[in-house]
Amino acid sequence: MTTTRTVNTETLSIAYHEYGAADGWPVILSHGFPYDVHAFDDVAPTLARAGARVIVPYTRGFGPTRFLSDKTPRSGQQAARGSDIVELIEALGIERPILGGFDWGGNASCVAAALWPDRIGGLVSYAGYDIIDVNGQQHPTTHALEKVFWYQHLFQTERGRECLSQYRRDLCLILWREWSPGWQFDDATFARSADAFENPDFVHVVISCYRHSLGLEPGEAALQAFEARLAQKPRITVPTITIDGSNDPLKPGGTADHAKMFAGFHEHRVVDAGHNVPQERPRDFASAVIKVRERMTLMQMRIQR
Fold this sequence. Notes:
Elements: E1 3-8, E2 12-19, E3 25-30, H1 43-49, E4 52-57, E5 66-67, H2 78-92, E6 98-101, H3 104-115, E7 122-126, H4 143-148, H5 150-154, H6 158-166, H7 168-179, H8 187-194, H9 202-213, H10 224-231, E8 240-245, E9 266-271, H11 277-280, H12 282-304
Parallel strand pairs: 3-4, 3-6, 6-7, 7-8, 8-9
Antiparallel strand pairs: 1-2, 2-4, 2-5
Helix pairs in contact: 1-12, 2-3
């Protein structure tokens, strides 16, 4: 059974779903844009049955999560979202959880694992080493991929901000269909997640994310040191499994070549899915988390010998 709770960090009142026993091995699952916590509705119970305590937070700008101060910038930059995960860990008093995420959630989880490896036990990342190369993204990719990225180009303009504000559900539904072309979801499934887009800061955070990631909007001064470290492409040292969807238009060719960015245990998997792997193939996502847990346990046993 899931429980919806809130906890305050330095910046946010974070709403989250919790599954499993309070003394279970900890897991934090982070969703992306334009999704929400329901992406893990089938993953989290599977992990709870395997003995995990599973925390599934609404990211900043989504659902009931709120900024504590009107003065806080509504930033969507990767260092802010990665910091949110670490502050959530601290607020809940969790010891070295496994992080699992996709899209924004995969990015934030990779950021947290790269910058704060001593706080993180393991990682399951959809789309490999998912840390944004802000400098690199100021230059074009292939013409075919630029076409897929139409929404990112739209969001660089005030017309795009107005479009997202007025037509957020319609626009996000297009993205769901484009990014997971083989996934047959119904209207109720989309509507359940789309309610999270009504957060008053949704548009601000989304626009900020894509303008910062393309180098067209400065980030918060307080986070600049973190962004500078991320620009150096630090390798991730915690035990990691990366996953690709074989039918994801955003990741043509997959991310098997990211292996060099992982300094510790690393396994790469490819599943028959589009972009939203946790919702399309929940058993595969849960299996990866459980495998990381097993690897962490094995490593701990070796240390104790």
